[in-house]
Amino acid sequence: MENLTVVEHPLLKRDLTTLRRKETSHGTFRETVSDAASLLAYEALRDIELEPSTIETPLESTTGYAVADDVMVVPIMRAGLGMVDGFVRHVPEARVGHLGMQRDEETYRPNDYYSSVPDGIAEAHVFVVDPMLATGGSAAFALDHLKAHGGTQFTFVCLVAAPEGVRRLDDEHPEVPVVTAALDRELDENAFIRPGLGDAGDRIFGTRG
Asked: Is 54 annotated in the active site?
């Protein structure tokens, strides 16, 4: 798991506690996903390139910086949508693609139903976002899909990861860094992360429970 970064931050631990708690309301869950995504983005964006320029302060000239990389954020729908706003707080100029996938509840494999990938992906640093990295099926499929569209530079960002999912990305996409708030214990017999935080999509959008 050489490419795995577990972000250690007190506020992220606090937010993850809120997300794990089953009593957390849909509204609070949605807001906290966005806040946690913003903290994860801070770490995930650490290595983006900057372009220097001369600016004027009220007192003198100095060197300022702007983001030089073309940043693209691609959420895996549905649940990944909850992370987009928190991520683009830091890079409002980022372009946003969308990949729609739904888990087959018998095979636990992803079925894709929608794709919208902005032009210029070959030159972009693409941040694929999804709250959960469970089996790794959706993440691996998304990266395959985006590579087929010409993408070359990726980071996968999630709130909670299972060892099984991290190992799958390590095997199939070993060059892709994974940034997460927590590496949980395991997957259960239904391919849910334990201890996890339940079905993130349902909890973000209030569609069950």
From this structure: no
